[in-house]
Amino acid sequence: MNEKESKEHPKVPTARWHVQIGGVSKNELMQRLNEQRISLNAYAEQLFADSRFTTSDIRRTLLAVEASVADLGFREGATLPQVFRQASKLGLALAPLELAVHLRLQYKDQHDEGSAGKPGSNQAPAGSITIASEPLSEDDEIPKGFYLRKIDGTLWLRGYRCDAEHRWQADDRFVFTFKI
User: Fold this and answer.
1) The pairing of beta strand 173-178 with beta strand 129-131
2) Which end of the chain is more exposed for a tag (fewer CB within 10 A), N or C?
């Protein structure tokens, strides 16, 4: 499902997806990514290799919602801690890290950035969707999480790094889950 407004949070326009997660190991997820020819960058591979990235044995469905930094109230952009705090105040929660992989496997009709989809220096690429998840480490050399892209028809699951001072742009997009 991909809707454009949240009835639960009418002030936060969103896209929404019901995403089934869990019941699959990291190795099985990697195999599925390979089978579907989904590309990974080095940071995504680093996240997969990290023992702190675990998957749940229990299958469940999460409601994932997409919102821009501006949708959360930051018209001039915000840092990751500010984005996460504000989302929590609006009833949104950080997603398990594995949600990004499952969403990438299930969400194939992402807007194609074409070959012009190259990011500026230290910016989220236009058209990308960052999954809001708890970072594995406070170390800025460890990737913080995943984001999704589609470039020239190729689906990507990419990892990203940033520090707590990095300012996300107002039009940068994040995926959260609803607090239960």
Assistant:
1) parallel
2) C
Token pair listed for 62? 């999460």
Q: What are 109's two structure tokens?
A: 């009709």
Is position 160 within any domain? Answer: yes
- C-alpha–C-alpha distance, residues 111 and 101, integer Å: 18
Q: Residue 99 and residue 177: Cα distance in Å, rounded?
A: 9
- Whether 42 is in a domain gets the answer yes
In a domain, 5, yes or no: no
Could you give the number of structural domains in the chain? 1
Tell the residue number behind the tokens 């959360």, with chain if given. Answer: 72
Q: How far is CA 99 from the centre of its chain?
A: 8
3-state SS record for 78-133: EEHHHHHHHHHHCCEECECCHHHHHHHHHCCCCCCCHHHCCCCCCCCCCCCEEECE
**CA–CA dist 159, 140 (Å, integer):** 13
User: Rounded distance, CA 175 to CA 94, Å?
Assistant: 8
Which of 90, 67, 86 lies closest to 78 in space, CA to CA? 86
pTM as predicted: 0.89
**Does 96 have pLDDT greater than 80?**
yes
Inter-residue contact 146 to 95 (CB < 8 Å): no
Domain residues for 57?
15-178
